[in-house]
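Per reviewer request, we include the raw input and output of the structure prediction for the construct analysed in the revised manuscript.
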Amino acid sequence: QVQLVESGGGLVQAGGSLRLSCAASGRTSSTAVMGWFRQPPGKEREFVAAISWSSETTFYEDSVKGRFTISRDSAKNALYLQMNSARPEDTAVYYCAAAMGWRLNRRVTGAYDYWGQGTQVTVSS
């Protein structure tokens, strides 16, 4: 089992920055990919970004490219999402997720085995 705990959410003004963190614990040695998803109010959970744990190859949803940066610290078993130039449409609950093996498509929720409880991000206009 793997436990994921997000932190760093909160209220930010449009154009501002926020850094989300995800602490992983448990049997993390098999982690292959970690990602961030978000669920806006009244909508389905959607892909934001992902990172290959070994190669650090990154993947982004088009609307966050150039504004968000995903990174990881393998020594700390931590995942991060630096959010810059925040927009009101970024308002959502943000979830950290982990996949315990190679996945053909890292952009779907079904590719991930473990999820955190989520952290709320609200961007005011």
